[in-house]
Design brief:
The complex is a heterodimer of chains A (330) and B (300). Chain A is of the alpha/beta class and 330 residues long. Chain A contains 12 helices and 12 strands. Chain A has a single domain, classed as LarA, N-terminal domain (Rossmann fold), CATH 3.40.50. Chain A is globular.
């Protein structure tokens, strides 16, 4: 046994009582338990970011029977960073098509909001990504969640040391939060989808850039605590037209997947998206735990109401540290 | 543009004398401090009442320990204390307040990774995910977390301006280490982002606004090769820089390093015409500082 092996064994022995104690503890309140008996997820083909996207998104929203008439809809794309050579962000065409679809369905107002995780420079991110032109053309209001007014919000679960988090006022003034992530692998969390996308609602002015306080508290726990405690109903639209594999969320390689995913159970949508990437969702730590109280992860508990998952599934590479995610449980 | 930006800033002042990050938002320390600095540099008698209201806002919000909170309604100290220090640094009647803030700032430091966390990281990741010296301590965004480039740069600028009025021992213990921390986080070809130069062996890229702020904080080491490399990197980034925030900081940095900022100012003017910087107070204030004679506030 060399020094490294010794340290591994020593750490495992010293941490095991702590870990087993944690496993026995229920870490969410009754109010946080929102898991439905069964969930529906729609996978729809979308080969490119062309004009047909609007019809596809309209159909996806309708298939999920989301009630939007008269409501203020908050679209939350992923705009964490920008690289002209990369595919980091939710494509502006998807945001545009979603905004148009929600308006067509009678939404009172559609707002786009994001709290970019790395940069304070909204004007740059919006302009460089192409989203600024979309917002201007369609007269859509943009809210920088990093610098919005905030409210101290008690958490409904306790997977981190936070008992409460400051959350932007804009969340409290909307009727539906639409998480619109990119289909990506992630070098810290395994995958980044509609649940992880909610890191963007946590204000950088309070928690910093990157949202380091959440990392210190634990990424998996933070994802769970944020998603258990958001003050409004949610819907997910995942941009998988072109996704990212490998060293995501910033430096991975593009992966053409040609799909959009929709659903009201964000856990079920993310679990389905993971399966599309041939990643086992029950091995993604935060998804496995989310499956206990926030939504459905098990394949048999998720009804595919769009196209067949198997038809679109593709092998997304992950970094070596997450190679265990690629062993599917069936 | 200077007049239009000043008029816009004035129009966006809240009734309480402060400014929000954007119009209509609750007043924040950073926005109010930057707006105050911008108006002070305009040296116009008509701006007097707005300036006094802004000063009063800041003075009334200072915490007992010398720090400032992030915004109205939020308790506790914050990184934006650095901006309040800067805004009040030339006000004789606020000297005692600013020194108190400086002493508080010198006592703050980002957290170190604990031994157990280091062990877990070493076990979990076969190769190091990030390359940085976690023993070098700067300033953090939020208490009890890691040091990052922006808050460290903000505090270095504010503290260096106050150097003669602060305890020399504490200054020497904190400021040079903060500088080393910033140098440690530099991207491979110069410049800075939020504070990681690479992840899993793949290089990350610098941001113009952060690079400019870091260079301003390190202006007293302008001959160092890292400064020169980063200045060059900033020049490359400036060719594609399209925001009030980045252009404002870059323009101020260029002036401090004796570089011609005329082209940047022209871009800044065009950008203001197009986007009004999304109404963001900090970008509008920085543009006023860059277009006018605001550079003196950042000269160390």
């Amino acid at each position: 046994m060399d020094r490294r092996d010794f340290l591994k064994v020593a750490a495992a022995v010293s941490l095991s009582p702590l870990l087993s104690a944690c496993e026995q503890e229920v870490r969410w309140t009754k109010a946080a338990y929102i898991k439905p008996r069964r969930s529906q997820v729609a996978i729809l083909a979308a080969k490119n970011y062309g004009k047909s996207l609007r019809d596809t998104i309209l159909r996806g929203i309708q298939m999920c029977r989301v009630e939007v008439r008269g409501k203020r809809i908050l679209l939350k794309p992923n705009l964490v960073e920008f690289d002209p050579k990369g595919v980091i962000n939710t494509h502006p065409a998807v945001v545009e098509a979603a905004a148009d679809s929600f308006k067509t369905l009678g939404a009172r107002e559609v707002i786009v909001a994001e709290g970019p995780g790395h940069r304070r420079d909204n004007e740059y991110l919006l302009s460089a990504s192409g989203l600024y032109d979309v917002l201007q053309e369609h007269h859509i209001r943009y809210v920088d969640l990093n610098s919005d007014n905030v409210r101290l919000t008690p958490l409904k679960s306790a997977f981190t040391r936070f008992n409460q988090l400051y959350l932007p006022d804009t969340l409290f003034n909307a009727d539906l939060l639409v998480s619109m992530p990119k289909l990506k692998t992630h070098h810290w969390a395994g995958v980044t989808l509609s649940l992880k996308n909610m890191f963007g609602v946590v204000p950088g002015s309070v928690y910093g850039w990157p949202k380091n306080a959440l990392h210190w508290a634990g990424i998996d726990g933070s994802i769970l605590d944020i998603n258990s405690s958001l003050p409004l109903p949610r819907f997910a639209i995942i941009d998988g037209v072109i996704g990212m594999e490998g060293n995501g969320p910033l430096q991975g390689q593009e992966k053409k997947s040609g799909v959009l995913l929709f659903g009201t159970d964000l856990v079920a949508v993310d679990a389905t998206a993971a399966r599309l990437m041939k990643i086992e969702p029950r091995k993604v730590k935060y998804l496995e735990t989310a499956g206990e109280f926030l939504g459905n992860v098990a394949y048999e508990e998720i009804e595919q109401i769009g196209e067949k998952l198997e038809r679109h599934a593709q092998d997304f590479r992950v970094i070596d540290e997450f190679s265990y995610l690629k062993k599917l449980l069936g | 543009m200077l007049q239009d930006a000043t008029a816009l800033l004035l129009a966006n002042q809240n009734a309480d004398g402060g400014w929000g990050a954007v119009p209509g938002n609750r007043s924040t320390t950073e926005s109010t401090a930057l707006a105050l600095v911008a108006l002070q540099t305009r040296e116009q008698a008509a701006l007097g009442p707005a300036i006094e209201k802004a000063k009063t806002w800041l003075i009334e919000r200072q915490n007992a320990d010398g720090s400032w909170p992030l915004a109205d309604g939020l308790k506790g100290p914050s990184w934006s204390t650095a901006f309040a220090m800067l805004a009040l640094s030339e006000s004789m009647e606020s000297t005692e307040r600013v020194i108190r803030a400086g002493r508080w700032a010198l006592a703050q430091e980002g957290s170190k990774i604990g031994l157990l966390a280091k062990l877990v990281l070493a076990l979990r990741f076969q190769k190091r995910a990030v390359h940085l010296n976690e023993d070098l301590i700067g300033w953090s965004w939020t208490p009890n977390t890691f040091s990052w480039v922006e808050p460290t740069s903000y505090f270095l600028i504010a503290l260096k301006k106050l150097k003669r009025q602060l305890p020399p021992k504490a200054f020497q213990e904190r400021v040079p280490q903060g500088e080393l921390m910033i140098y440690d986080r530099m991207c491979e070809n110069g410049g800075w982002n939020y504070g990681n130069s690479s992840v899993y062996g793949e290089r990350l890229w610098p941001y113009p606004d952060v690079t400019a702020v870091a260079l301003i904080a390190l202006q007293d080491h302008r001959e160092r090769k890292e400064n020169q490399m980063s200045l060059q990197a900033l020049g490359e980034m400036a060719k594609n820089t399209g925001s009030g925030l980045a252009l404002g900081w870059t323009s101020l940095c260029y002036e401090l390093y004796g570089k011609d900022s005329a082209a940047l100012k022209s871009l800044l003017e065009r950008r203001f015409g197009k986007t009004k910087f999304l109404g963001e107070t900090k970008a509008i204030a920085l543009s006023i500082l860059a277009m006018g004679n605001g550079v003196r506030y950042f000269r160390i």
